[in-house]
């Protein structure tokens, strides 16, 4: 249950992204700065954490050994992910972005065949076998997504087709980019780096992407305002540092089990609940209706099924090992 709990807390801190990004959008801030400023603020904080743990040189050595892989998968996992989220926030409210983002639950499971695992074949030799999609985990994830759709249905009908597409398409890309980048980096690091080191390495490797976005921002909308800078700093700490580290720590614990990994990634469905309550408290959004409550029930049911199934698998494996 520890990975699930870490995932839930990660969802709580990730939810600040959607609420604060919506606040910045209301205040006239550009999505270009909302995206890039977060990672500029994350960098010195992560360096400080890793330096205090005396692990900085290891990160630098890993970056030098595989610079192309770090650049590609960090840009995918951090760049395409967060730029897509921020771009979508310019065309839809925070609750809609948070709700649509739950597509990553399905996306992460569909990425399973892209990875391999070592198994002993019939001839007794170790073989690299392509992983299969865990169908039961996919079923639970669909249940969660159905709940999210129900929650957002009454709101989505009031949005224009253009705004809906501009909100949906970048989030769809982000929903594949985040788990793909995360898993590829776990595969590349192969337990040589801890969570803090890996997040720092990915932040450094994605800097060219953020610098490019900031240059575009200067040329198109000018420099960001003080309010946007301050809110971006909060997002960097809450979502960029705390939530990312919690989520990566959770996925590290279950990275060799696709069912458990899918369960951890499914905890991020709670972001929509936390984001909804955050908008109610901080942005004076309307209270959830009965339809939204029905969606919440579906999401919670999916979460319970994920947790029960994951715990059952752990218990069975423990019994076999004993």
Automatic annotation (TrEMBL):
Transmembrane intervals: 37-56, 68-90, 96-116, 137-153, 159-178, 199-221, 233-254, 266-285, 291-309
Keyword vocabulary terms for this entry: Membrane, Transmembrane, Transmembrane helix
Tagged with keyword tRNA-binding: no
Record protein name field: Multidrug resistance efflux transporter family protein
Native organism: Niallia hominis
Organism lineage string: Bacteria, Bacillati, Bacillota, Bacilli, Bacillales
């Amino acid at each position: 249950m520890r990975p699930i709990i870490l995932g839930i807390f990660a969802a709580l801190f990730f939810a600040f992204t959607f609420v604060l990004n919506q606040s910045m959008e209301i205040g006239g801030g550009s999505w270009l700065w909302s995206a890039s400023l977060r990672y500029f603020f994350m960098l010195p904080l992560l360096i400080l954490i890793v330096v205090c743990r005396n692990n900085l040189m290891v990160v630098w050595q890993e970056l030098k050994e595989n610079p192309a892989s770090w650049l590609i998968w960090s840009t995918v996992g951090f760049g395409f992910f967060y730029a897509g989220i921020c771009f979508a926030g310019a065309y839809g409210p925070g609750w809609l972005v948070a709700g649509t983002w739950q597509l990553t639950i399905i996306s992460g499971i569909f990425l399973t065949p892209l990875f391999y695992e070592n198994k002993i074949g019939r001839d007794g030799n170790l073989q690299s076998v392509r992983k299969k999609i865990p169908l039961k985990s996919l079923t639970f994830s669909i249940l969660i997504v159905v709940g999210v759709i129900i929650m957002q249905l009454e709101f989505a009908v009031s949005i224009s087709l253009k705004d809906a597409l501009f909100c949906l398409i970048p989030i769809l890309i982000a929903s594949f980019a985040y788990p793909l980048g995360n898993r590829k980096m776990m595969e590349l690091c192969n337990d040589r780096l801890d969570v803090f080191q890996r997040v720092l390495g990915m932040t450094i490797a994605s800097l060219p992407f953020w610098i490019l976005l900031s240059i575009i921002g200067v040329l198109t909308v000018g420099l960001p305002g003080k309010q946007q800078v301050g809110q971006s700093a909060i997002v960097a700490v809450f979502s960029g540092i705390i939530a990312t580290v919690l989520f990566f720590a959770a996925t590290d614990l279950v990275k060799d089990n696709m069912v458990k990994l899918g369960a951890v990634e499914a905890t991020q469905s709670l972001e929509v609940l936390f984001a909804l309550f955050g908008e109610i408290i901080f942005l004076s959004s309307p209270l959830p209706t009965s339809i939204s409550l029905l969606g919440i029930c579906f999401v919670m049911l999916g979460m319970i099924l994920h947790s029960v199934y994951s715990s059952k698998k752990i218990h069975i494996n423990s019994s076999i090992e004993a």
